Amino acid sequence: MGRSGKLPSGVSAKLKRWKKGHSSDSNPSISRHRQAARSRFFSRPSGKSDLTVDAVKLHNELQSGSLRLGKRADPEMPMEEDPALAVTEKSSGTFLSGLSDCTNVTFSKVQRFWESNSAAHKEICAVLAAVTEVIRSQGGKETETEYFAALMTTMEAVESSESLAAVAYLLNLVLKRVPSPVLIKKFSDTSKAFMDIMSAQASSGSTSALRWVLSCLATLLRKQDLEAWGYPLTLQVYHGLLSFTVHAKPKIRKAAQHGVCSMLKGSDFMFGEKAPAHHPAAVSTAKFCIQEIEKAGGSKEATTTLHMLTLLKDMLPCFPEGLVKSCSETLLRVMTLSHVLVTACAMQAFHNLFHAKPSLSTLSVELNAQIITALYDYVPSENDLQPLLAWLKVMEKAHINLVRLQRDLGLGHLARFFGTAMTCLLSPHSPVVIAATQSLKEILKECVAPHMADISTVTFSASGPAQYIAKMFRAVEEGLTYKFHASWSFVLQLLCVFFEVCGKQAHPVMKKCLQSLCDLRLSPHFPHTAALDQAVGAAVTSMGPEVVLQAVPLEIDGSEETLDFPRSWLLPVIRDHVRETRLAFFTTYFLPLANTLKSKAMDLAQAGSTVESKIYDTLQWQIWTLLPGFCTRPTDVAASFKGLARTLGTAISERPDLRVTVCQALRTLITKGCETDADRVEVSRFAKNFLPILFNLYGQPVGEGDTPAPRRAVLETIKTYLTITDSQLVNGFLEKASEKVLDSASSDFTRLSVLDLVVALAPHADESAISQLYSTIRPYLESKAHGVQKKAYRVLEEVCGCTQGPGAQFVQNHLDELKKTLLDSLRTTSSPAKRPRLKCLIHIVKKLSAEHEEFITALIPEVILCTKEVSVGARKNAFALLVEMGHAFLRFGPNQEEALQRYLILIYPGLVGAVTMVSCSILALTHLLFEFKGLMGSSTVEQLLENVCLLLASRTRDVVKSALGFIKVAVVVMDVVHLAKHVQLVMEAIGKLSDDMRRHFRMKLRNLFTKFIRKFGFELVKGLLPEEYHKVLVNIRKAETRAKKHRALNQAAMEEEEEEEEEQPAAQGKGDSIEEILADSEEEEDNEKEERSRDKEQRKLARQRSRAWLKEGGGDEPLNFLDPKVAQRVLATQPGSDQGKKKDHGFKVSADGRLIIREEEEVDKVEEDEGGKVEDDEMASLMEDVGIRKKKLKWHKEAEDEEMETPPQYQAGGTGIHRPMVKKTIPGAEYKAKKAKGDVKKKGRLDPYAYIPLNRTKLNRRKKVKLQGQFKGLVKAAQRGSQMGHKLRKKDRRP
Fold first, then answer.
1. Measured distance CA(481)–CA(1030) in Å, rounded
2. Which of 702, 703, 726 is nearest to 714 (CA)?
3. Of 595, 605, 629, 600, which is closest to residue 616 (Cα–Cα)?
4. Distances in Å between the alpha carbon of 123 and those of 98, 120, 145, 164, 1078?
5. CB neighbours of residue 418 within 10 Å
6. Residue 566: DSSP 8-state
7. How would you classify the pairing of strands 1155-1156 and 1148-1149?
8. C-alpha–C-alpha distance, residues 197 and 217, integer Å
């Protein structure tokens, strides 16, 4: 028996609960339905009753939910007040008979969003059903035209506002699909009917019918052709629609404004070949807006003005130029009213005008410039946050549009805007500073950057656009003065963008700024070094290092008296940003400087000045690190590389500390610098010099105590250089390398190194050289030296992997010979050579045709056994080769299923071999099942599943593990219908597993059972398994139920959050939407008070938003209202209000705004779980047992070439990030026992006890009972410890 007062599980979620604070609202104040029931209780109804058999049947269907087609999703579905069930003439149908089988897709929206408890929706459905029945009774085809005619007839006949709204809604749907010629021909009658309804409903309390009629009228006008707009009737109808754009009710006003916008922008003739520049009604629309705004004047509320500004916001880009000018003048006039909301709406209208990028027929260049000039008189105060943000955004779009229309005039206006926007950086409000910075950056990218290529060199004495650029930069450069120090980070961002955009042409006017930046960086405690480095780096990228170093020299020449090097920070900045510059500058400037510094370092080292020597050595190394940047797309490779090549060769051979850097520079030059044929020929000309040096370096053994040469960087450089080397030179190198391999005097290290070089050379040689190389390495394929054999296979892999050129031709011509060689070397292949050997076979199998099927058959046993190789790469290649063989059989066979079956027959014998072979064969079949699941026949898969189930009886864990992996994949891959036939077989085989197998594979079995339960249910799986598995199954069911419930709760929570976000406060009008029509329900009665309070808060907030404050003059100076800048003193925020006061969170704040939170105790570090991350992908987890997933390597991959140097031995010392990091000692840690728990006593120290501090408040008698048991647990723990120690001492004393 359940507990009293508790609902059964799941019931509480279905019940409708009271909202918080409304549980006492028991009865509604309106009892309309009770009164109606009371009046009929003792008296029979007069007239014909609507209670028929059909009505009862319909009621039952509605209550059971069988007619509920979907959840209503349209928030603007028209609904009216009273439900009225109509009795149909047919005894076998209901009033929905014509709705459910309506064939016209126009009304699918009505069917799709059926709402059974909505009276207005029922009215819509009833009208649609009735109209459909009428059309069918007259033999109609249910076309849009027939529905249009029938609905128009119905609209003239209906009397109630509910039915009128339903008909208007259906007309709104169908009018969009009625052919235009029909609407043009019937325009006069249709518009008259609509106008009559509009005049009748204009003062009605219900708005649904009127809003849909307005929408219908807009659609009707949109379908008219251009000639119709020359008739007075059309303009008269349009003016009737236009008059409702200032209606008092918001939904009617919104419908009218939306109709006007859609008509002016989307009329059919506006998209034709002879479309006019502007809609014929645009003139009257603009005049109407101007007239209404002027009529409203400067009234206090300015409601009509705001309505018209809302319409102008969308319409302004559609007007011709003369009317745009008149509207702009009107907007500027109403902005002088200093009404905050009016000013904001006017700004929004200007923003939409410029953002639309109108043509010259709408917005001329002169008008655009005039609006920009006029808007400078309306600059808000820097303390007025929102208006200033809006002004900045409008001016940004205005200038972008002006530059788009005319470059020179637009650039001329930018200088003034830059000066005004820079003053915004002095604002104390960070949003203003951010917005001003963002606007200037956007203007630089959108207006200046596209035209810089056409502008000559920018100097202060230049004229035209160059002069404008100079003025703009001077305004930004002023931001480096001290009064802008609070916004220096934003000024540096602007300078960074300026350098990127204009640095190439404007560097003469930027040199002084670069000097100022360098001086600023040397100032003590400068907080923005990263942003400054980024700005100087942008200058290096755009201007080039030569120009930057002319403005700010390095001041390093090796003859310094002190070792300060104040501008050494430039070297890392240049290294990170230099590209697309002259390579000759590095040769003429940096190379001599590096040689001088190296000589200085050597001299100091000989003199015993180790520290100074190390400093100079570091500086010269930093200079060499600039070389890869200079090699990134240089402009003078063909002319300058020959002067640098000899120095680079010497550095590679004689300077071990520079090898990595020089090798990286060579690779960068070849891959990113040789863009033309001339550059490529020039660099390849020195291959005969560089490659022997690199070959010798790679072949040098590492001596004792020597730093190991960066062999990988050298080898990668060799491979990169060979891509542009002449093939004859490659053949010569390959011949010498082959001789070195065959030389018996060569050591093992030398032979392996030379074979690495042969691997790099082989793909670039011609066919004759490759043939000779093949003869050389063929004996080594059977070598007993595992390393040599592996390298030989690597050579063969590179040759076989060529998809074109001499390598591919060699493989095609020697295919039979390669097949024989690979089969003969099968037995002598060592384990390390398996990976490259399998890769060779993959390349060869891709090129085989049907006559080579025997070769694949001979390889299958080897490939199957390789699926259990130790090497991850070998296993991966084995599975890839199995799949490639399957594709080869698909190419061979006439039928895919038959070819795949022929391939699988070759794998089946492995299932009856040795234990290892059986396990490998199952793994191979599992992988093939996963890869070819769509091509295998159901009979083949079922046969495989039956055979694998038999193998579950094996006593070997490897076989059982592979079989369980196959079943796991089969459960996912197979269709449920086919899998259901074998559920009993699989469960019986699993049930017969021994106890040892069941314990060992318990997690795999649990995952398998979970998948079967999800597919076939708990009871079926439980009935097929023995009793010892039932406990596991019950546990799985509980876990699944918990997980399902948790997912449902999360989903419900997410849906609630979405509903709360989408929910909007309802309007006060009645009859406008579904929620308001059902206002008599109990739920809305409960929420009435809450809505009233919410509306009151909204009205209060609106009043606050519409209020404005006047900022008076400073001191005793009176405010001059004739001042042209007096508009800046009208604020939207109250001056002097303490809105910027920061909250006290109880934490200290650092200088950069971060909270400083001190913790009392050290938080113990949580140990990482050794199990690793759980993979989310189900397919990856399925193939875990197959051996496809890579295991985590115990060693890390080698770093990139640039990071191969031995890191310097660094010791902490100093301040900041160089401070020594010492762990904070935990109190009492010195007493902790090393091997046991608890504390130990230390000789000469206090005992490790917890001492209770004295507290005078504990002497209070009234708190005696409360504090009585405070230390009871402490005393008991001490007693237990003493008793245990007493017992231990007794044991020790026993003889």
1. 81
2. 702
3. 600
4. 13, 5, 22, 10, 14
5. 24
6. T
7. antiparallel
8. 11
Q: Which amino acid is at 244?
A: F
pLDDT digits (tens, 9 = 90+) for 80-115: 333 333 333 333 344 444 455 677 777 777 766 656
Which residue type is seen at 487? S
Q: Which tokens sit at 621?
A: 């190394």
Nearest to 674 by CA among 628, 722, 724: 724
Q: Confidence class of residue 1214 from pLDDT cuts 50, 70 and 90?
A: low
**Three-class DSSP category at 1149:** strand
Q: Which two tokens mark 313?
A: 């916001």
Cα 675 to Cα 635, 663, 683, 691, 788: the distances in Å are 10, 19, 11, 21, 39
Can you give the pTM of this predicted structure? Answer: 0.68
Q: How many CB atoms lie within 10 A of CB 223?
A: 22
- For residue 764, the 8-state DSSP code is G
Distances (CA, A) of 1138 to 384, 527, 1135, 1142: 14, 29, 9, 9
Least confident of 114-128, 804-818, 1219-1233: 1219-1233
Contacts of 1055 (CB under 8 A, 6+ apart): none
Tens digits of residue pLDDT in 67-76:
433 333 333 3
Q: What is the pLDDT of residue 1071?
A: 42
What pLDDT does residue 435 have?
Answer: 94
* Residues sharing a CB contact under 8 Å with residue 120, sequence separation 6 or more, in sequence order: 77, 78, 79, 80, 81, 162, 165, 166, 208, 1074, 1077
- Helix crossing, 529-543 with 570-577: angle to 10°? 50
For 1272, other C-beta atoms within 10 Å of its C-beta total 9
pLDDT, the chain, mean: 79
Of 394, 399, 405, which is closest to residue 445 (Cα–Cα)?
399
CA distance 349 to 355: 10
Binned at pLDDT 50, 70 and 90, residue 28 comes out as low
pLDDT digit string, tens, across residues 162-191: 888 888 899 988 888 899 899 988 889 888
Output the six-digit token pair for 681.
């020929």
Burial of 854 (0-12, 13-18, 19+ CB in 10 A): exposed
Q: In 3D, which of 90, 164, 80, 73 has the Cα closest to residue 127?
A: 164
Q: How far is CA 27 from the centre of its chain?
A: 52
In a 3-state reduction of DSSP, which class is residue 1131?
strand
- What's phi and psi for 1239, nearest 5 deg? -110, 160
* Half-sphere exposure for 788 (CA within 13 Å, toward CB): 19
User: Tokens in use for 153?
Assistant: 């007839």
Paired with 1108 in beta bridges are: none
Listing DSSP states for 1208-1271 in one string gives P-----SSGGGS---PPPPTTGGGB-SSSSSB---TTS-----PPPP-GGGG-GGGHHHHTTTT
Asked which of 55-64, 1255-1264, 1269-1278 is least confident by mean pLDDT, the reply is: 55-64
CA atoms within 13 A on the CB side of 422: 26
Instruction: Tally the C-alpha atoms within 13 A of residue 802's C-alpha that lie toward its C-beta.
Output: 24
* Long-range CB contacts for residues 1271-1274, cutoff 8 Å, separation at least 24: 1274/1250
Give the span between the Cα atoms of 565 and 554, in whole angstroms: 8
* 1005, 964 Cβ separation under 8 angstroms: yes
Compute the half-sphere exposure of residue 997: CA atoms within 13 Å on the CB side of its CA: 20
The CA radius of gyration of the chain, in Å to the nearest whole number, is: 43
Which residue did the predictor score with more confidence, 1244 or 121?
121
Q: What string of H, E and C letters represents the secondary structure of 89-149? A: CCCCCCCCHHHHCCCCHHHHHHHHCCCCCCHHHHHHHHHHHHHHHHHHHCCCCCCHHHHHH
